[in-house]
Amino acid sequence: TLCGYLIPTWNYIFLTVGIINYILTIPLLIYPISPRFALVRGREEEAKRTLESFSRLCNNETSMADVNLTYKKRVLTFFEQLKDFKIYPTLRKETLLGLIAWFIVAVLFYGFSFGWVQISSDLYTGHLAAAISKCFGYSSAIPFCNLIGRKKTLLSILALGLFSNFLAMPDVQISEDWTLEYVACLIGNLTCSAAFGVMYLYTGELAPTSHRGMIMSLSSASARVGSFTGTYVGLLYAVADRRVPLAVFAGLTCVFILSIC
After folding, report:
1. Is the pLDDT of residue 146 over 70?
2. Which residues face 173 on adjacent strands?
């Protein structure tokens, strides 16, 4: 948003954004590798150092000096993993509910855009307000997860998002430039961003290690379908009363809550 506001030429906008993205990759060069990767490569001491650094981050410093780390290779083929979904009904149920949740959170994330670009007559101000709410949503989810856990945090976020859908329905003018819908849009934008971030943590913890790659891939595919579906739901604003897409988003949020419960 800031680049688009300050730079009038489109090709310089792309150049600036590309440079910023390149700078943001620099921290990855000093980020520690995963302990599993180090063990696969036969670098046990490096794996221990990584685990010790992780323990310090969790305020539970642990020495790995007297610990022998071993890596046991367990390979399941694609069809063997699919067979496990039939053998273990809990795994099948949680995966299907997770796919539903991922689809809905993507629909809400990409489709919950009513009004927030119209907060000001200046398009950039609206996008900037939405960006700030997204940043606040992502950052606020972390302490809440540590305080009350992933599931309760996600349910609380969804309840707030459901409230924002109903809050946006009345035609209430707060000031010359602000309406109740705009305020609800910012709250909804915040909750969708927070829910999207928490879903990554929640899914990774529920999925067993042997099937985590497949489950995360299926979840990502389900979210991609939801991402373009949400934009089509948003088109209802042009052909129907604005309360219709709001009701759709509210109904999807209720389904999301049920799938998490």
Report:
1. yes
2. 179
